[in-house]
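chain below, 311 aa
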Amino acid sequence: MAIEHASVRALHKPWGVSDLQPWSDIDGTRDAVGELWFERADKNAPVPALLLKLLFTSGPLSIQVHPDDTFSRAMGMPNGKSEAWYIISAKLGAQIGIGLKRRVTPQELRASIANGSIVELVQWRPVAKGDVIFIPAGTIHALGAGIVLAEIQQRSDTTFRLFDYDRHRELHIDNGVAVADAWPLRSPANPARLTDERTILVASRHFVLERVDLPAASSWALVAEPETWVLVLDGHAAIGLATVSIGQAIFVGGGRSSIEVGTNGLTVLIAYPAARPIDSLLQRLCEPSTQPVQPAAPDDPKWTALAEART
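prediction:
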């Protein structure tokens, strides 16, 4: 079983920020930081299926779209890119773009890219702390300024930019139009409470994303699948022999590990590749279980409906 402090890689972006506190001590004064990627510390380990990030925006990102598995594999890539955002903080008036206001033809989409009216065509909505947005592959989307968010995604860096606010970066109009679902996004399912401590934010065909809130000075067992990512949003704890606090991430590679929660409690995001929540993922240590790790309620229509709404 692997329990690793994730290494952090900073990506500099024109829309990034100079101050990443309290999430990181990295200084972006000379070159703005837009993304922090959490990677396995063991560089010789198998490549994970998922990628965990933090994003920081001082300006709008490009309007973009990602391919699905079928399109990606036809281009020689291993998989597409569906992703989910958890809004950590958002300034007053901060917005995201998700889907389009109306259905358009490929020709209309091309024309809107050419004349810049795609900015008005995108469905913009305000966001606030705690919001969750699932973005299936093929969804046209964008991030506005003033947002800090955590992102979990299929491990792919394939992005087709459709519009970039005259930043003079490469656009990918042909591929972008080919993969885009040029219509409004279906209404997402709401987060669902699994237990007092666990809230299922996203249950898709590619991954599950949970928010877990643990009380101060409590003890737990994390019974992880072969790949499980844990990002600390608040508080501190010891996971196995690794101590973690706000902004840090842990990779757990299968097996059972202890969580000893600190005096201020613990709030984390947990993500793992699965189609449904794992019922036995989190257990109180005072109530040991010998049950194997199995999906929660595999025939429960609640999770079927949640997954269908996300895809």
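Helices lie at 69-74, 106-115, 118-121, 173-179, 301-310. The mean pLDDT is 92.
thats it, cya
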